[in-house]
Each structure stands twice: as structure tokens, then as C-alpha cells.
Amino acid sequence: MLFPTLTFAVFFVIVYPIYWFLRERGSGWKIFILAASYLFYGAWDWRFVFLIILSTVVNQEFALRLGRSAERHKRALLIGAIVFNLGILGLFKYYGFFIESLNALLRTLGVGGRLPLLEIIVPVGVSFFTFQAITYVVDIYRGQLARSSVLDFAIYLAFFPHLVAGPIVRAGEFLPQLKAPQVPTQRQASGAAFLILGGLFKKVVIASNLGSAIVDPVFAAPSQHSAPEILLAIYAYAIQIYADFSGYTDMAIGIALLFGFTFPQNFDRPYAAASLQEFWRRWHMTLSRWLRDYLYIALGGNRRGRLLTYRNLVLTMVLGGLWHGAATTFIAWGLFHGVGLAIERWWGERRAASTEPGLSFAGQIWVQRFLIFHLVCIAWVLFRASSFDRALTIYWRALTAWEPGPLASSNLALVIGGMLALQFIPPNVGRSLEEAFAELPLVAQGALIGIIMAIIFALGPRGVAPFIYYQF
To answer: Which of 209, 346, 382, 427 is a Cys-bridge partner for 333, taking CB atoms 3.0 to 4.6 Å apart?
Structure first.
């Protein structure tokens, strides 16, 4: 079930009033929102609802045992919980990748026979709800969170706005809100509508059009396209994935707010970053925090010397790349960012230790932003390409195939340039627009929402493509 569809609109119109009706009349609203969330997820494949239920029951049992066991047994229980959760990911996301890799190794070694390869469907959003389950158990182990009831934990894992593509909401951020979800004020409801409309525009008008107009055809057959088309497709994909994913999270945050829940921010103008570290503080912020707090710090962070710090950065990003998918391209994408972060840290330490004055001029920040944006775009090729060979073809033709191409239009360049320009508008401008919208009378708000919705669906392509991050 996709947010920008009639099916979801009907689902929301039915669920929303019943939810608030029950919310004022006891605890039945919790059972209702859990059932609605399972219905939402089951619209893709009802069988995987049982996977979420299994994850809920097993992780709650680990949490229960952590609370009752002696200290000497808690580490073993934590390891068991992590193994269980990573086992789910391993089975559904990485089984085929590892079996194919092992079979390739056996062929290289001249060993006969092949390990069986089963066709396993990857559940939508399995990485997101698995990571959230891990935060719950780890935070209980660390003493940062008290175990919740099984019903509250089930809602936390399955709550439909963030179920399939985040943001990754931590248990400590969500569970306390279940005690008393706040009825949104008129201003909050207006802000939620503003977020949802903005997310719809980014997904339907920007991301979907860029995907069908240039990204999909170029990445599908790069050898058939010229360098101008390939370069424009690379820039277009940078905008597409931002508009697609941030559009989804804007809608998720807005919908959750209408139900009385506050989600953490997930994007903050990432292409305005002047360093890779800053980029990761602005891009998919909830995943960046998760990788930092549950992986990088667990590996030792920066506490064990310079070389191990560099190793931890690289390893964290490689595993972050593998989290996105079982492919060498995702591993290479993570390695690119990990090595880049390590080099960036080394260079910063070197400059801090140097007595020589550093380079300083008025446009330095813009040079850094230009460089970081293009490094990110180079890495996006690995993220988007269906194979490593195809990524290499894209790089090669971007440098050599300088000839006219029909897909390289000025209109696409204007859209890409306009979206990049928006990255440098101060956040208070957006807040001012949101406040101005909230100040309008309800009738005017409704009319404006109707007009914007009509524009969005008039400018969008026929049909709605799944969100890019649904596959993760």
C-alpha cells in the first residue's frame, strides 16, 4: 500500500476517525492501530505479517529474560537477540548473495557441485523493523530503557507510518508516546498537512518524473547513451533519491503527527554539506545515528587510537552499505564513503596539528560543497547501478562518449538545478511558509490543499512507482 494512492486514502479515511474515537474510550485504540498496521503491511503480502509477529514475540521474550537474569547471563542473551535479528536479515536479504558467492568460490577452486539456491521473497521494509527491534533489546541491555508491554512493543515495530521505510525511530523515542498520544492542535495538523503535501510533490512530481524521463533508461542501458545524458542522469538520480526518500519521510512524519506521535527528522538539506561527515549528519539521519550508536561505538569508535578509528569508520560504512542490499555495488558504495570519511578525518587531524595557516578565502565553503556533492554523486552510481560492470560502464562513458543525446534536455537540467538551489535556502524560510499556511482559515487551507493536490497529480506521471527505500 503506497501513500500517494487512492487505496491508502481510503485506508486513512477509515482508520483515522476510528482511531481517535477509540482513543478517548480506553485502551482498545492500541489493538485497533496494531490491527490497522498489520492490514497496511499485509496489503503487500499477508504472509509476512507473521514475520513481524515472530520478531515481536521473540524480541519481547529476550527483553523479558534480560530483565530477570543475572548480570553474567545478560551478554549471552543480548548476543542471542542480535543473532536472531540478523538471522532474519541474513535469510531474507543475503541468502542468495552468499550462496552465489560461495558457488563462485567453489568454481574458482575447482570444487564440483553447487549449493542449492532457493528463491526467497524479500519482505518490504525488513531492514527497518529489524533494526528497530535491535535498538529495543540493546537499550534494555544497556539500562537505557525499561521493557514495555508486548502490545506496546508490537505497535512500535508495526506502526504503519514508519513500518516499511523509516525513519528508524528508537524505542526510547516512541514507546513513551504510547502512554498518552497528544491530540494534534490545529497548528500541528496544519503542519502535518504541509509536510504531507511537500512529500507528495517531491515523490510524485520530482522523483517519479526524473526516474522515468532519464534515470531509468540511462541506468538500464548506459552503453547506448552519451556522456551528456549519463552526467545528467547521475545528477538526476541524486535528486530523485533525495526527493523520493525525503518525500516518504515527510509524509510518514506528517501522518504520524496526525495520530499524535512525533518522529525524528531524517533529512536536513544534505547536498549543502561541506564534508562527508556533514553529509551523513544531514542524510538519512536516523540511520546515521543508528550506525554511530549501535555499530561504530560498539566497534570502539575513536577510543582506541587513530588507525583503529579509521578502520571503524570504514567497517561501519561497509556494513551500512550491505544493510541496503546484498550486492557488491552496495559494498563498494559503503567502502567509498568509509574510506572518504577516514581520509577526511586524517586530513582534519593533520591540519589541526600543522602550524602552517590553512587555505582561507571567501568561496572556500562553496568549493568544498561542490567537491562533496560530486563525490556523493560518484558514489550514487554504485548505489543505483544494477551491477558493478554497469557502474564501470557509466563512469567510462561519462568521460568518453561526448556526443549529442536526445535525453539531455534543458528542462531536466532546470529541474535538477532548481532542486539543488532549494538545498541552500535557510530552514527558517520553510518554517515561515508552514506558519503562514497554519494561519490561514480552515476553508482557505482546504481550498489550497485541493489546488495543490490537483497540480501534483496533473504534473505527475500515470501510476505511482514504489518508493526507492521500500526495497531495503
So the answer is: 382
